[in-house]
Automatic annotation (TrEMBL):
Protein name: DUF58 domain-containing protein
Endpoints of the signal sequence: none
InterPro entries assigned to the protein according to its UniProt record, in alphabetical order: DUF58 (IPR002881), vWFA_dom_sf (IPR036465)
Domain DUF58: 42-232
Length: 290
């Protein structure tokens, strides 16, 4: 799909009214993110009550009287989306693939940033960096970015989040907002995620599909891993087999949530059968209330 089709899809997601989508895009989303920090404003003469820790000793020594540095909150933020485009995202059991849901979520977030006059960029990754889009402002940049979300054709099949995080760390020197959009089907790079969250406001968005959690009640099947290509047998008639598989994925999911929470990383789970806009609205409202 091209960028216009994707934008149309965002505004016409089943069960979502245009008012709801526009309400999200026009909301003051800054209030739900951790502050971007302070930037230097000016140097002025010391006044009674000023924090002595803000004294600029170099200027003070030159002028012969105390001067202090003043700071202000940075006027803009940079939002960087780490978008997983590996082969497992191309799967889905219903109307939408996981990749479609990821694109809709990413486009909604990008729209929100541009609407608030902030910069937005993205790193599309598989087991390699497929494309790097540096954070920029403006509607033209937004349209190009959404076009990339809709039309990117990845070369790799696997997923290497640590490589994507390394790309972000090299490129984003100032504090910003980083949102990972992935199905996290391989063991995530928890250590690298922890390091990234110390410098940036990090949110992990996990895309799931009903097929991830349940196995069809059919006979002997061959299941192929979309990323590794490995084939394994599945016997859907076995209730024990289905139960073991469901318990395995549930344990994986609980572990992922626990690790994110333990490392101070906010997490959100969105299923392909859910309404992405409503899920994002609900998440950010909860976050704002923390």
């Amino acid at each position: 799909m091209d960028s216009l089709q994707l934008l149309s899809r965002i505004r016409n997601i089943p069960l979502v009214s245009a008012r709801l989508v526009e309400g999200f895009l026009s909301g003051n989303y800054r209030s739900v993110f951790k502050g971007p920090g302070l930037e230097f404003d000016e140097v002025r003469e010391y006044s009674t009550g000023d924090d002595v820790r803000s004294i600029d000793w170099n200027v003070t020594s030159r002028m012969g009287s105390p001067y202090v540095k003043t700071f202000r909150e940075e006027r803009e933020m940079a939002l960087l989306l780490l978008i997983d485009v590996s082969a497992s995202l191309q799967t889905g059991s219903g109307t939408y693939r996981k990749a479609d849901t990821a694109a809709i979520i990413s486009a909604l977030l990008a729209h929100s940033a541009v609407h608030n006059n902030d910069r937005v960029g993205a790193v599309f990754y598989t087991d390699r960096i497929e494309k790097w889009v540096p954070p920029m402002k403006g509607r033209n940049h937004l349209m190009r970015l959404v076009q990339d979300m809709a039309s990117i054709e990845p070369v790799g099949k696997g997923s290497d989040l640590s490589n994507a995080i390394a790309c972000v760390e090299q490129s984003m020197k100032r504090r910003g907002i980083c949102i990972i959009v992935s199905d996290f089907r391989i063991p995530p790079a928890y250590r690298q995620m922890s390091m990234l969250s110390r410098k940036h406001d990090l949110i992990a968005v996990k895309i799931t599909d009903p097929a991830d959690k349940k196995t069809p009640s059919t006979g002997l099947m061959e299941l192929q891993d979309p990323e590794s290509g490995r084939i394994s047998g599945s016997y859907g008639f076995s209730s024990r087999y289905r139960k073991d598989l469901e318990e395995f994925w549930l344990a994986e999911h609980i572990f992922w949530q626990r690790e994110c929470r333990r490392r101070g990383i906010d997490s959100l789970v969105i299923d392909t059968e859910e309404d992405p806009a409503k899920a994002l609205l609900s998440f950010f409202r909860r976050r704002k209330g923390k």
